Amino acid sequence: MTDAAGAAGWRGRVPALQHRDFRVLWFGMFFSSATMMFQFYAQGWFIVSMTSSAALLGLLGLSRGAGMLIFSLYGGALADRMERRTLLMATQTSALAIYGLISVLIMTGHINLWVAFALIFVSASVESMDAPARQALIPLLVPKEHVPNAVALFIAAQVSAYAFLPPTAGLAIETVGTGGAFALSLIGHAVVVLALLKLHVRAKPAPATVSVLRSVGHGITYAAGRPSVMWILAFGMFVGILGTPVITTLAPYWMKHELGLDAGGWTLMGWGWGLGTLGSTVFLSTRDTSRYLGRGTIIAATGFALTLLGFGLTRSLPLAAAAWCLNGTFFTANMIVSTSLLQVIVENQYLGRVMSLRGLSGALNQMAAAPFGAVADGVGIGVVVPVAAGLLATLIAAPAALNRTVRALVAEGAQPPAATASASEPPPALAE
Question: Domains in the chain: how many in total?
Fold first, then answer.
């Protein structure tokens, strides 16, 4: 094979990277994920170092979730009403300032648990407006046929750091402290801002003729009139509420109290989870998955539930590491295929608001950490995790077997959206 033929084959496997603006933003996200890994681990370890209560640790998720819940729908409406690149620059700059303040307060000793929760609430509020704009920007950077590949690559850029950086994050926490780890994470936000400045896309939506509140209502009506969209959102909520609290909030408590690990051991387990995400993103980002998005959503969500169940039932470090790695594989696969499915079947003028509904479920996912933690303090986290995982598996499998809309989605995959009215008009109700 000639060099030219090899290059052509490589580009054919990742067609989204052929588009200059997507490539610029993707490289920015890829680099920033490496430094924001420090932020992720610093949050959890800072809180767990200040309290031995799973319930108080759960308040970390409640703080993040409350910010997302309050501002997610507003952020989705903004993403459909204003230039998305400008909105992203504003949110990334704000996040840079907030995490900079957290870093300074920790390093100078002028912070307590409740100030930390308040600042995390503010940061989550900003990020909830960032997420739908970032996701809705993708169809403006690549043609429709390359959207699934773009989503896979975008998520790969966000999660690939889990495969390589957790031990480094643990080393940073142990050497420069959580404040220093937060400071290192600021580089990521700065890189994303620079990447956004280099984008050529300047797509402006049609002038809004309704209020933000009414625009939010139109987005909800649009989603509610499409059972397939509602089921995708519902599956995301099931996975998040019953699984995400363990991964994003309660994991340090589990690693410390159930597996006897320190910060370094926890991040090494995170490394294993990240290797699973890497395998998933490499596989899905180099293949045409457009015909299998519906089926892939069900398979990945079920695999996530079963591997979480296996993780919750074992106290063997090798088995726990294997289950955790597979859990990362299925979690990331579910993110990629379900997000791609929404990107393909939802009209662009509603995409920001629909993705904000996905973010709304993400808010509930984070908030679920508080009752999870409270129950864990009462009956033990060793009971909570396998019960939640078993319930999740049931909630995924039952609709896939019994509901006609879900069965059709699995059988037919993604269909391109039909043209609809402009974003300023109430969407027509569609029967499916």
Answer: 1
Residue 373 lies in a domain: yes
Any residues with CB less than 8 A from the CB of 285 and at least 6 apart, and which? 14, 149, 152, 153, 156, 336
The vertex-92 CA angle with 263 and 96, nearest 5°, equals 55
CATH number, residue 376: 1.20.1250.20
pLDDT for the residue 164 = 62
Tens digits of per-residue pLDDT, 181-193?
A: 888 888 888 888 9
357 assigned to some structural domain: yes
Whether 38 is in a domain gets the answer: yes
Question: What does DSSP assign to residue 160?
Answer: T
Identify the pLDDT of residue 206: 60
Q: Which pLDDT does position 417 carry in this prediction?
A: 47
In this structure, what DSSP letter does residue 426 have?
Answer: P
Domain range for 22 is 17-200+207-412
Whether the CB-CB separation of 92 and 234 falls below 8 Å is answered with no
Residues in CB range of 136: below 8 A, 6 or more apart: 79, 80, 84, 348, 351, 352, 355
Distance (Å, whole) CA 181 – CA 224: 42
